[in-house]
Amino acid sequence: MIMNMKISDLGEFGLIDRIGRTAVRSTKRAPIGIGDDAAALLLSPSAALLATTDMLIEGVHFDLKTTDLYSLGWKAAAANLSDIAAMGGMPRFCLTALGIPSSLTVEQIDEFYLGLSDCIRKQRTVLVGGDTCASRKDFVISVTVLGEADRKRVITRAGARPGDLIYVTGTLGDSAAGLELLKAGVRSRKPGVRRLIERHLRPTPRVAEGRKLALSGLASAMIDVSDGLSSDLGHLCVQSRAGAEVYADRIPFSNELTSIKGLEQQPFEYALSGGEDYELLFTSPVEREREVMSLRIRATVIGAVTRRMGMRMVTEKGEIRPMAPAGYDHFRSGRGRGSSR
Amino acid sequence: MIMNMKISDLGEFGLIDRIGRTAVRSTKRAPIGIGDDAAALLLSPSAALLATTDMLIEGVHFDLKTTDLYSLGWKAAAANLSDIAAMGGMPRFCLTALGIPSSLTVEQIDEFYLGLSDCIRKQRTVLVGGDTCASRKDFVISVTVLGEADRKRVITRAGARPGDLIYVTGTLGDSAAGLELLKAGVRSRKPGVRRLIERHLRPTPRVAEGRKLALSGLASAMIDVSDGLSSDLGHLCVQSRAGAEVYADRIPFSNELTSIKGLEQQPFEYALSGGEDYELLFTSPVEREREVMSLRIRATVIGAVTRRMGMRMVTEKGEIRPMAPAGYDHFRSGRGRGSSR
């Protein structure tokens, strides 16, 4: 095996052939996969088609100093699978478009596809097509995931009603703390450190959880936590034309996040504005709390939907503070959009 | 109206809101369009879903010195619509992901979406979602188009049989000649020059033609001419496990291409290796030629499929020459893959 093979040695069509090995050419669900002008795919006749696309650009979304290519492929897929999960859908098909700088080797692209394939395979999703081209400087990744959902069971961001409880799956803030550790160059072998870093590099899309919520009909609205709790809850509130109260002491944190010393911020700060946790944030009528708990999806009540617009945080001491969306804005310097919205 | 508004003045979510104006939020076919985690879309119950994605990167696929933003948006859409056309399908939905450098203004992004919207609207296709992020240097565009086709009428690249005639719609070579004129800075007002440049900047995807071929069942194989006749016919031959003979004097050229003086190459050279014509190249049994002609799709017979592998060009003088795929390779310097494949 030739190591550090340059992509120019393979050529575009050689590289496409190589990528094609991880993609399907023809299956029952994807009678025409990679290798034609477009993929031809089959959905259940009664299903709604779900479609989402995300772009990741080197230097903006990731830094090759703090991620390996396997994790990058995993995460690019996970972000899109998470969007399908947030609609209550089942991901089925994946398409990728890559802009590859000459600094990357064939082995690195192999690693990328290995990570992507491992992530989508766990969710019974297949790679069916894509595009590959050169990029002058930055590695550019665009992933599209197509899924399906029962037409009447698609969960939007818009259905939350005053009085509904607000839930989140798993724990929040781990990813942002993991990124901070990575940036600081912490190479600890402590399981806690490694776990936070892993949560940042290879997040788990909550597909099974979203699916249970869709089938049960218990969620009135849902979104995935990709930009941070304050930002994503803000989207859900705006689209549901409602407000929210969040109880600070209810936000679920991992043992790793609360126990590791030397982090720059408090756990709830990572949760509010950190993003990339890819947990599901959903609302459900208060009288159905017992049913939600019986789904066994590890969800925690963190607040309630209010008629009054805007978001408020109730501190441990019972003080009520305004909560502004504080996620990342791609086109503004630094973080935080303050109260401009 | 504020001119030259910086994207940082709007912010990410302001820009998404602005783009949202050209996209659908909810229609009968797209009950959930832009503005949620994923779009939820409806296809005909018996249809196959077609999916294709393309990436365009500044400095690789386009140069903002030779294209306006409107044309760029148009072409990004057209390239994908053409892929759906080449399967015999109807494009339905479009998703875009943009990586935007700080050098672009809000008005330029508006122009991009205006061009994209005008192109897809002509094909009854709607924008249903996407992603918007910052890019450090290059403007990066990723477009995904979803379409549908009757399950039994999808036309692949793989069905050509020895003896089938090879057809191409429209004329070839205009786009490459138009690019040459643009690069040379030719700013002529002559209709011929403008027409070639327009063919390069705002190509017409042959959706209606592809559709007629699919419904009639006349095409045994089809591909769109995006990389140049020699390269794309090469793909069709490889996938059909057949060869081809092309008659040089049958290749259709526009009057503009043959009459304009001062071009660097011969018309057939632009046709063979130029690419970006977005015409349809298809094959059909010889005994059905009359039926093909009756479709009124302006298609020209340019050769025949052969049992013998490889491609050969029959010159006007009757000489037979080998024809090697000569399209653009993203990862190799210059053009031409020679006979390595």
- CATH hierarchy: architecture of the largest domain in chain A: Alpha-Beta Complex
Number of helices of chain A: 10
Q: Taking Cα atoms only, what radius of gyration of chain A do you get, to the nearest Å?
A: 21 Å
For the record, what CATH class of the largest domain in chain A applies?
Answer: Alpha Beta
Quaternary organisation of the protein chains: homodimer
Shape of chain A: globular
Output the CATH topology of the largest domain in chain A.
Answer: Phosphoribosyl-aminoimidazole Synthetase, Chain A, domain 2
Mean pLDDT of chain A: 92
Contiguous uncertain segments of 5+ residues of chain A:
334-341
Q: Element order, helices and strands of chain A?
A: HEEHEHEEEHHHEHEHHEHEEE
Strand percentage of chain A = 15-25%
The largest sheet of chain A has its strands arranged as 7-9-6-10-8-11-12
Which descriptors apply to this entry?
homodimer, about 350 residues, alpha+beta, 60s Ribosomal Protein L30, Chain: A, Phosphoribosyl-aminoimidazole Synthetase, Chain A, domain 2, 2 domains, 7-stranded mixed beta sheet, 4-stranded mixed beta sheet, 12 strands, about 25% strand, globular, disordered C terminus
Can you tell me about this structure?
- Chain A contains 10 helices and 12 strands.
- Chain A is an alpha+beta fold and 341 residues long.
- Chain A folds into 2 domains: 147 residues, 60s Ribosomal Protein L30, Chain: A; 158 residues, PurM-like C-terminal domain (Phosphoribosyl-aminoimidazole Synthetase, Chain A, domain 2, Alpha-Beta Complex).
- In chain A, helix 3 links the parallel strand 3 and strand 4.
- Chain A is globular.
- The C terminus of chain A is likely disordered.
- Chains A and B meet through helix 1, strand 1, strand 2, helix 2 and strand 3 of A and helix 1, strand 1, strand 2, helix 2 and strand 3 of B.
- Strand 2 of chain A pairs antiparallel with strand 1 of chain B, so a sheet runs across the interface.
